[in-house]
Design brief:
The protein is α+β, with helices and mostly antiparallel strands. It has a single domain (about 5-65), classed as N-terminal domain of TfIIb (Single Sheet). About 20% of the residues lie in helices and about 25% in strands. The chain has two helices and five strands; from the N terminus they run αβββββα. Strands 1, 2, 3, 4 and 5 form a five-stranded antiparallel β-sheet that branches. InterPro entries: Trm112-like. Belongs to the UPF0434 family. This is UPF0434 protein MARGE09_P3398.
Length: about 60
């Protein structure tokens, strides 16, 4: 679980937009960039090259929450 204070100050390195904590997938999701950044050993890996592109269905699901 990520520290709430850390989560409140992290932003997407590509868009500088907010991130959403996706606990089941252990990722930080940037809807604005369409990327999901992995969290390994409780450390966010905020590198664009390490992120995966989220699908349109995933993006729509997050927007509808």
């Amino acid at each position: 679980m990520l520290d709430k204070k850390l989560l409140s100050i992290l932003v997407c390195p590509v868009t500088k937009g907010p991130l959403i904590w996706d606990a089941p997938n252990n990722e930080l999701v940037s809807l604005s960039a369409g990327l999901a950044y992995p969290v390994r050993d409780d450390i966010p890996v905020m590198l664009e090259g390490e992120a995966r592109e989220i699908t349109l269905a995933e993006k729509e699901a997050w927007q509808n929450k």
